[in-house]
Amino acid sequence: MRDKPKIELLTVDFYEAEAGWLRYKLTVGQQSFDNRFSHVWDPLPDLKHWLEAISIGVQQTSFQYDNEGDDIKFDFERVSWDKEVLTISEAYENAQVFIKANIDRRQIVKAFYLGLLTFASSEKFISKEWEVEYLKERLCKILNTDEEALIGQLTDLNKRELGEILFNADPTYYISFPEATDKNEEWNMFLQDTIDKDKGVANELKSVETPAEWNIPDDYNFWTTDKKRQFVIDCINEKTNGYDGMKINDFRSSIIEKYLDEE
After folding, report:
1. In terms of domain of life, where is this protein from (predicted)?
2. Considering the chain, what percentage of its residues have pLDDT values greater than 70?
3. Does any domain span residue 149?
4. Residue 230: left if φ>0, alpha if ψ -120 to 50, beta else—which one?
């Protein structure tokens, strides 16, 4: 009779959300893997479905994601009645394997699922650095109203009033350098100014911030109510922070939580 395979312990540590990156570290014994998710090709929906598949008892399931540099693959397979293998590797032929270990499926689900939710509830998680946010969400919070009422209120405004409230909810500016002789010099000034500010270095470059006003047609005030309403809906569905990461509340899964409650 062969010995029962050793079951390893997996730890999952999500530790930073910054500028559209969600960084994490996996550890299994002496094996470790430090990597990141990108909001551009957000893998959280696939991670959620992968964990749900493991929860309902599939024999093998995998997904891969692009971290804006490499394609990474997460794979789970039930090899035999007493052996379930987690493999983290590159998603290429002759791929480099970062982690491969016999890990209980419930432990995999629990480590990833609670690892992310625990991080998201901590002070280290800055939601605006990862989660997508729409202008309508921000305006509903500011005005303490719901989406349908918000649309009605904004539709009743004239062109100037609408432009002001949209700008004030999400102010953005064009940065220019009047002393530049051409666009190329202005671009170089912008880069230098950005680098200096990141380093905390003062310079003599003189920049001008010009409000980026909303592009509302001149004849807006003469539009029909239905046409204004559709325009308002289009405006408030714009993103405010530039990131596309899945909202952590949407990552929650009744399938996974029911499975973990069965322990």
Report:
1. Bacteria
2. 97
3. yes
4. alpha
